[in-house]
Amino acid sequence: MAYPPAGQYPAYPQYPGQSGMPAKPPAPRTVQNAFYLMLAGAGLTLIGAIIGLTQTSTIRDTIRTQHPDYSSTKVDSAVHAGVAFAAVFGLIEVGLWVWMAFANRNGKNWARITATVFFGISCLSIIGLLAASAGGSGPFSAQKASGIGVTIGVITWIVGLAAIVLLWNKQSRPYFKPPQYGAPGAAPYPYPYAMPGQQPMPSAPGQAGAPQQPQDQPADPWSNPPQQ
Question: How far is CA 170 from CA 23, 160, 173, 177, 180, in A?
Fold first, then answer.
């Protein structure tokens, strides 16, 4: 019996209970909306960073108030350092928003937890921003926050809150669960049984169900008596 060459066996579908990684279901509407909100948060953060970079006069006044003994050259150097730090920090924050957006849309549970931690940090930041806008004392008296900066900060915080609520919604929870695999002891792939319209896969010689090779029958000395 001729066997088909290697690689010519027909493809067989996966069966329920078979070992293997199931396909990831599509993201629910709540996760998709959280994804869009996170991208909006990245855009708002970028706008806030750009606005903050244009307020060099506010930074200069703050430095002069805190360090009246600084010369003009030293004040300029401090302003440039502050602008550079704000630019780098703003880009990192935008990158974190985008990273969390795509990771959560892919159903990564660690990303949902990490995004929640980032939102907790942003809650502390918004408290400091509001205290600075009110001219608070202590650590919040470093600089006076502008009105437009406070507005963008508050809107960004609200967007983050809405995204976190959607990620932990009951409709989103099943999407973040790890995939379930087939039960141990399931039949291995591929099955040696043919589906309708397919040719069965022949078994290798020596396996159960393989065609038996004809064997030579022992000669019967009485079937053909010798000629005299």
Answer: 21, 18, 5, 12, 19
Predicted structure pTM score? 0.64
CA 92 to chain centre: 18
More confident position, 162 or 26: 162
- Tell me: the pLDDT tens digits for 86-98? 889 999 999 999 9
- The DSSP secondary structure of 162-228, one letter per residue, reads HHHHHHTSTTTGGGGSPPPPPPTTPPPSSPSSPPTTSPPPPPPTTSTTPPPPP-PPPP-TTTSPPP-
Q: How far apart are CA 100 and CA 79, in angstroms?
A: 32
Give the ranges where 21-108 is alpha helix by DSSP (H). Answer: 29-53, 56-66, 72-105
Distance between CA 142 and CA 140 in Å, rounded?
A: 6
Residues 201, 204, 206, 211, Cα dihedral to 10°: 50
Q: How do residues 138-181 score in pLDDT, each as one tens digit?
A: 434 444 556 787 889 899 999 999 999 999 999 999 999 876 65
Per-residue pLDDT, 202? 57
Whole-number Å distance between alpha carbons of 155 and 161: 10
Q: Counting every residue, how long is the chain?
A: 228
Neighbours of 71 (CB within 10 A): 9
Contact 101, 39 (CB under 8 A): yes
